[in-house]
UniProtKB/TrEMBL annotation:
Listed InterPro entries: MTA_SAH_Nsdase, Nucleoside_phosphorylase_d, Nucleoside_phosphorylase_sf
Domain Nucleoside phosphorylase, chain residue ranges per copy: 2-226
Residues binding substrate, per UniProt: 78, 152, 173-174
Catalytic reaction(s) noted: 5'-deoxyadenosine + H2O = 5-deoxy-D-ribose + adenine; S-methyl-5'-thioadenosine + H2O = 5-(methylsulfanyl)-D-ribose + adenine; S-adenosyl-L-homocysteine + H2O = S-(5-deoxy-D-ribos-5-yl)-L-homocysteine + adenine
EC number: 3.2.2.9
Pathway: Amino-acid biosynthesis; L-methionine biosynthesis via salvage pathway; S-methyl-5-thio-alpha-D-ribose 1-phosphate from S-methyl-5'-thioadenosine (hydrolase route): step 1/2
Protein name from the UniProt record: 5'-methylthioadenosine/S-adenosylhomocysteine nucleosidase
GO cellular component terms, A-Z: cytosol
Gene label: mtnN
Top-level EC class: hydrolase
Active site per UniProt: 12, 197
Length: 230
């Protein structure tokens, strides 16, 4: 098995890199690629950069040039679901865009034309991530995570998202793009996120304060999952 792991920011990949046996490093399309092993499993770890286009470029390079069996996206997100707090962890059962609107052509909110309305994560891997999170002394929840090119901060934005996606748990800026590319390549995926903020008016401040801790928690889930797969 060969696993591709994508994080948008340095804070989201640094712990994973420190635990790898690295055999090769390079930069391509301004993304940082690190190849090696983690717990004996072949891994290509990538720092993609922030946003949907960066995530899609990186995922495409990863899947087109490497024989990847599973893609894991690790990182942080803003908690929107009721009861979610900073530090809580969410595992994607499915992903959707919340900034796509082609409803005039009969599609649902969030649906890119000719694409699924939601991208479903690999159910077996989701359950393995849930178990891995528990082993890492985390309390995970699974559900819908939504993606856009906006950092969500404030009641107006979260209210709009929840109106269109009542079952949403978290919002971030890469996951659905990664999921769409995986869908196109027929490669299973899972998105793993720790809450760095609660998408309120103070989100920018709390994000800066908690991003390192959120990155660590998400990485811990990934490391425990890979240990279980080894």
């Amino acid at each position: 098995m060969k696993i591709g792991i994508i994080g948008a920011m340095e804070e989201e990949v640094i712990l994973l890199k420190s635990k790898m046996t690295v055999t090769k490093e390079w930069t391509e399309a301004k993304a940082d690629f690190i190849e090696g092993t983690l717990d004996g499993i072949e891994v290509v770890l990538v720092r993609s950069g922030i946003g949907k286009v960066n995530a899609a470029i990186t995922t495409t390079l990863l899947l087109a040039k490497h024989d990847i069996d599973l893609v894991i996206n690790t990182g942080s997100a803003g908690g929107i679901g009721q009861g979610l707090k900073i530090g809580d962890v969410v595992v994607s059962s499915e992903m959707a865009y919340h900034d796509v609107d082609a409803t005039v052509f009969g599609y649902v909110i969030g649906q890119v034309p000719q694409m699924p309305a939601r991208y479903v994560a690999d159910a077996a891997i989701v359950e393995k991530v849930i178990e891995a999170a528990k082993k890492a002394s985390l309390t995970p929840v699974k559900g819908l995570i939504v993606t856009s090119d906006s950092f969500i901060a404030g009641k107006e934005a979260t209210t709009k998202i929840m109106k269109n996606f009542p079952d949403v748990l978290a919002a971030e800026m890469e996951g659905a793009a990664i999921a769409q590319v995986c869908h196109q390549f027929d490669v299973p995926f899972v998105i793993v996120r720790a809450m760095s903020d609660t998408a309120d008016e103070e989100a920018g401040v709390t994000f800066d304060e908690f991003i390192i801790e959120a990155g660590k928690k998400s990485a811990l889930m990934v490391m425990e999952l890979i240990h279980d797969l080894a």
